[in-house]
Amino acid sequence: MEFKMSAVCFCKMLMHSFKYPQSTVNGLLISDRKEDKTVIISDCIPLYHNSHGLTPNMEIALHLISTYCKERNVSLIGYYQANKYFYDSTPDVFAQRIVDKMFEVNGDTILVMVRINNFGLPNVLSDKSNIDNAVHLYTCVDGKWKQKSGIVHENATKTLSAIQHLVYKKQVHMNIIDFDNHLDDVKCDWRNEDINEQINETISVN
Q1: 111: nearest Cα among 65, 148, 142
Q2: Domains of the chain by residue range
Q3: pTM for this one?
Q4: Under a CB-based contact definition with an 8 Å cutoff, are residues 206 and 128 in contact?
Q5: What is the mean pLDDT of residues 171-197?
Q6: What is the homologous superfamily of the domain 2-205 according to CATH?
Q7: Residue 40 in 3-state DSSP?
Q8: Which residue among 15, 22, 68, 196 is least packed, with the fewest CB closer than 10 Å?
Q9: Using CA atoms, how far apart are residues 202 and 113, in angstroms rounded to an integer?
């Protein structure tokens, strides 16, 4: 099985990570379709920056987002995490526990670790080859989570342009909403539909 990530999903993962570099952040990955043997990772739902490691909060989020996915005929395909200060991209025990639980429901579940520490934000924004190195993909093999070859991007050039424009120039990442924000103020929309629109609009003109 291969995995291809949309620009919307990739940009939002990085936005969540860049908004809270001092925290471990995490979220859920969504797929809206398969193409032959390739799973399309179409979107992500940012979850927490203050509540990492709190299992009850994660269970609440999984329940609500599972219902959200069923209503829209999409699937929960995995989990992403960026460790604080991008110090290490190794999955911790909590990340593995979450994907183990998700794997029981969906055998295609993946774990994505955001990896920025070795080259930093300026380099991510300067070269599309760094887009491929910004995440590590893990799949479950014989009951253990092992690193797999990288994720394919739907369009690395347009993804890079979107990051350069929305993160570096417009600072849109400061507006991304996660579940922690929603718990503080229910008016905060964790679906981030406005940011999805901005990413798609940016891609369409590049």
Answers
A1: 148
A2: 2-205
A3: 0.93
A4: no
A5: 95
A6: Cytidine Deaminase, domain 2 (3.40.140.10)
A7: strand
A8: 22
A9: 25
